[in-house]
Amino acid sequence: MEANYIVTVPGVWSDKVEYTTLRETCLAHILQSHLFMLAKVEETAVCAIRTIQPNDLADIKIKRQSHTDQEE
Q1: 64 occurs within a structural domain
Q2: What's the domain of life for this entry (predicted)?
Q3: Is residue 72 part of a domain?
């Protein structure tokens, strides 16, 4: 079984620095097809989505902006 790797990087990193990180993972014999690079912002979004279970979505109330400012 081959492993997949997720590398999180700060969202402010330049493309050059991300490329350097990618090159270093290749030197560690990690195949690019098994490597995922996520910016910290994306990582946070993924964790939030995984935390919310499909059954919990019914409990979420969406407040829409309107002139009466009522919940729908």
Answers
A1: no
A2: Eukaryota
A3: no
By three-state DSSP, how is residue 55 classified? Answer: helix
pTM value is 0.48
Q: Provide the domain count of the chain.
A: 1
Residue 61 lies in a domain: no
Owning domain of residue 36: 5-53
* Alpha-carbon torsion (13, 19, 23, 28), positive or negative: positive
Mean model confidence pLDDT for the chain:
75
The C-alpha angle 17, 10, 26, rounded to 5 degrees, equals: 45
- What is the rounded CA–CA span in Å between residue 3 and residue 12? 28
The answer to the question of residue 63 being in a domain is: no
pLDDT at 16 over 80: yes
